[in-house]
Specification:
Layout (H helix, E strand, L loop, with lengths): L1 H4 L8 E6 L2 E5 L3 E4 L4 E3 L14 E4 L2 E4 L17 E3 L4 E3 L11 E3 L4 E3 L4 E5 L5 H13 L16 H5 L2 E4 L2 H46 L7 E3 L7 E3 L3 E4 L4 E6 L11 E2 L3 E4 L1 H4 L10 E2 L1 H6 L10 E4 L7 E3 L7 E3 L3 E6 L5 H8 L2 H10 L10 H6 L1 E4 L2 H44 L23
């Protein structure tokens, strides 16, 4: 992302460094150890925990957490939590490769788990600059050389002796203010693109749902389907229970029918949610022997079978492809074989429509939400257009998916570019590759025009 920082000037003079992590440094910058910049503080809240706001370290940094929300694990007691003050730095210095974000800056007073390290900036240092510096390191796991043990821990005494870059207090302030302004603009643009992606996905689903329940001809005569969630359908369409569309509907075997000791390195494949959710039947490495395959032949899956994920993932449905390996379904799938006169791809799209989801919600009342069984599937009403119309609707849906997917991919690419720009700006500012000492906050809403998104 050279272009992201090309418009900013560099320092006039640099000095060479005998450091692995940085070859050059602005002439007036220093290198100090963390212990001269940050002071470790551990104050336990004890019985006063009820007076403190619960905080959490997340990808968005240190954020307030609602105890009553029920999100994530909530301990029985917070008495072992530690005090956090506004502008403290919070570090997670364990399981560092697995932890998405290892540093955060507290926006307010509160308390946080005692497993983290809480530091305050020593006078003469800007907490926000220190945060951006360690965020820069976190983006490429720059503390990896200091890990120890299986849990990849950076010990407190080791952390205290890590070297970090130190510009003057004024420059730290300028860098922090510059990055606050620039990253806020970028974050605003990213949020707009994320909202666009959600709108595109909603529109795509609405177009598909309309096509499979109303057809493609806006002038066709309509009739009442007799089904609350379907409303009117084209007059020449039939409406029937889904079970009458199929020659068979079979749930996967009971869990006890397939045990771990049955799996072999090669043979007949066992298909499950792992393949259906991403609609990728090449992945997966669960196989059974020919003997077990023949014993479980009732669950054999054939090309054009509709496979439905039946636990916790309503709407995850795929058609078994022609070129997939022979195999069976596992207990988390249902396979529906539609009659030869119907297009299975049309009915896959219909089963993923809003009309079917509403039926499923109604039929599941009193049962377990997110779980589909044959009884529920049998009761779902299906529309049955003539076969040629099924084919035309499916082809139309594919065209619409391609169009919307292209727009979504463009938005995702824009987000990726903006995230790269964000990373490049942080990296360049905290390592002295750009000089922002003379930067002034323009105080205008550039977020609407930057990038021309």
């Amino acid at each position: 992302m050279v272009g992201a920082v090309a418009k900013y000037q560099k320092y006039v003079e640099y000095k060479d460094l005998d450091e692995d992590f940085l070859p050059i440094l602005p002439i007036d910058w220093q290198i100090h150890r963390v212990k001269t910049i940050l002071k470790l503080r551990r104050v336990i809240v004890g019985s006063d925990s009820k007076f403190y706001q619960l905080l959490s370290l997340s990808l968005k940094g240190v954020i307030p957490r609602d105890i009553s929300g029920g999100d994530g694990k909530i301990p029985e007691s917070f008495d072992t939590y530690q005090v956090v003050k506004e502008n403290d730095l919070v570090f997670c210095l364990f399981d560092m490769d697995e932890t998405p974000r290892t540093v955060g800056l507290a926006p307010q007073n509160g308390m946080i788990t005692g497993a983290y390290n809480v530091y305050e900036a020593i006078e003469g240092n800007v907490p926000k600059f220190v945060y951006y510096y360690f965020l820069y390191l976190d983006l490429f796991k720059g503390l990896k050389p200091f890990y120890t043990g299986l849990r990849k821990v950076v010990r407190s005494d080791t952390f205290a002796n890590i070297k970090m870059l130190c510009p003057s207090f004024y420059e730290q302030t300028q860098i922090a203010n510059f990055l606050d302004h620039e990253t806020a603009k970028i974050d605003s643009l990213i949020e707009k693109q994320q909202k666009l992606i959600e709108l595109l996905k909603e529109k795509r689903q609405a177009v598909i749902s309309h096509a499979v329940t109303k057809g493609l001809n806006p002038n066709v005569l309509m009739k009442d389907s007799g089904v609350e969630w379907l409303g009117q359908v084209p007059e020449h369409w039939e409406v029937s229970r889904f079970k009458f569309v199929c020659s068979s509907i079979i749930a996967g075997p009971f869990g006890s029918s397939i045990t771990k000791d049955m799996y072999v390195s090669k043979g007949y494949k066992v298909y499950g949610q792992e393949q259906v959710i991403p609609n990728d039947f090449e992945i997966g490495d669960y196989y059974i022997s020919e003997k077990n395959y023949l014993e479980l032949s009732r669950y054999e899956v054939y090309p054009k079978d509709i496979l439905i994920s039946c636990v916790g993932t309503f709407g995850k449905i795929a058609v078994f492809p022609e070129n997939a390996q022979k195999g069976i379904i596992n207990p988390r799938l249902i396979k529906a074989t539609v009659s030869n006169k119907f297009n299975p791809y049309f009915f896959r799209e219909y089963l993923k429509s809003d009309a079917v989801f509403k039926q499923f919600e109604q039929l599941s009342r009193g049962g377990t939400m997110g779980v589909i069984n044959i009884g529920i599937l049998n009761e779902i009403f299906a529309v049955i257009p003539p076969r040629t119309e099924q084919d035309n609707i499916y082809n139309f849906i594919q065209q619409q998916k391609n169009k919307f997917n292209h727009l979504i991919q463009k938005a995702e690419s824009t987000i990726q570019l903006m995230q790269e720009r964000r990373t490049a700006l942080i990296s360049s500012a905290v390592t002295g590759k750009i000089d922002v000492r003379n930067w002034k906050n323009p105080n205008n809403n550039e977020a609407n025009t930057e990038f021309g998104v």
